[in-house]
Amino acid sequence: MSGSGPATAGRPAAPKPVTSKPATTKPATTKPATTKFATSRKARHAHTRRRRKSTSHVWKYFAVFASVAVVTGAAIIATGKLAASGEGPSRFDQVLDAAGFGIGEVTVSGHRFTADSDIFDTLDLPNVTTMAALQSGQVQARLRKLPWIETASITRVFPGRIAVAVTERTPFAAWKNGSTTVLVDATGRQLSAVRDTDWPNLPRIQGAGAPEAASALFQMIANVPEIGPRVQVATRITGRRWQLQLTNGVRLELPPEGEATALASLLANKSASSWLDTPNTGIDLRSPTRIAARFAVTESAPPTGVP
User: Fold this and answer.
1) Can you say whether the dihedral through the CA atoms of 235, 237, 243, 247 is positive or negative?
2) CA 181 – CA 193 distance, rounded (Å)
3) Using CA atoms, how far apart are residues 282 and 244, in angstroms rounded to an integer?
4) How much is the pTM?
5) Rounded to whole angstroms, how far apart are CA atoms 203 and 210?
6) How far is the CA of 103 from the CAs of 147, 162, 305, in angstroms?
7) How far apart are CA 234 and CA 219, in angstroms?
8) What confidence tier does 307 reach under pLDDT thresholds 50, 70, 90?
9) Cis, peptide link before residue 159, omega less than 30° from 0
10) Separation of alpha carbons 224 and 260, rounded Å
11) How far from chain centre, in Å, is Cα 134?
12) Could you write out the three-class secondary structure of the chain?
């Protein structure tokens, strides 16, 4: 009896709002609502398309930024191990590392004569632990200061890897500098010290200023087949001119300027050009009007001049 009263009193009141409006209001409101909704929807869509046409690139950047923010936030929640400020890596670096922006691996390619350790030291990996801390332009400039490195590129490979690609310089000559022999490239850049017997196919040069001037000299004598292949050592004299020592001991004293003209004059003179085949002969081409020769001590003939 106590349960029947409340049950009968509550049931009639609840169903009435649901069943009291079956179809009377639908015909009156269906068309206006549908028309109004369609109109506002078209207007909204047209406005959206116009904005997308002018700002689509903004949304792309925003999407990338949002993705990074989500990943970084997830990393913060996942790690929960941020060190206090001043202890170990900074909070920011820890977050970047957890989000895949740390530097966990470095690959180097293109080097043969440059030591791996020299490249890694240049990258300063103990202090550069994240992609954000890596200053690519500065690192590339430091890499190009290494003796052998000519070009360098750095590529970020996510997550957590740096790819370093270098090209090395080509040795051009072996420069005898005192008791040391150093490889140099065509620009005169000193590459590395070698033994005297290393790189036997490279030209041998001597004297102060020889590395910087050697490229022009050997380009010139490459066009003189009677002399070029026979040059054993090219010595720079007082930083101004060259002395060429041939494989048979003949020494050619070239002028400071007009070396090609002087060699052409020597070869055009049949008498003088024959001296090239006389071992240990000194041929002086510094005078524009005459060619002088000094024979070895064992020769009985005195110094000779040919106009």
Assistant:
1) negative
2) 6
3) 10
4) 0.65
5) 12
6) 26, 7, 72
7) 13
8) low
9) yes
10) 9
11) 15
12) CCCHHHHHHHCCCCCHHHHCCCCCCHHHHHHHHHHHHHHHHHHHHHHHHHHHHHHHHHHHHHHHHHHHHHHHHHHHHHHCCCCCCCCCCCHHHHHHHHCCCECCEEEEECCCCCCHHHHHHHHCCCCCCECCCCCHHHHHHHHCCCCCEEEEEEEEECCCEEEEEEEECCCCEEEEECCEEEEECCCCCEEEEECCCCCCCCCEEECCCHHHHHHHHHHHHCCCCCCHHHEEEEEEECCCEEEEEECCCCEEECCCCCHHHHHHHHHHCHHHHHHHHCCCCEEECCCCCCEEEECCCCCCCCCEEEC
The residue among 132, 133, 206, 120 whose CA lies nearest residue 164 is 120
CA-nearest of 45, 295, 14, 41 to 305 is 295
Q: Residues 132-150: pLDDT tens digits?
A: 778 889 999 999 999 999 9
What are the residues facing 204 on neighbouring strands?
A: 174, 233
Residue 19, pLDDT score: 39
Amino acid at 249: G
Q: Give the CA count within 13 Å in the CB-facing half-sphere of 199.
A: 21
Q: Is 214 exposed, middle or buried (0-12, 13-18, 19+ CB in 10 A)?
A: buried
Interior angle at CA 60, CA 59 and CA 61, nearest 5: 90
What are the residues whose beta carbons fall under 8 Å from the beta carbon of 268, sequence distance 6 or more? none
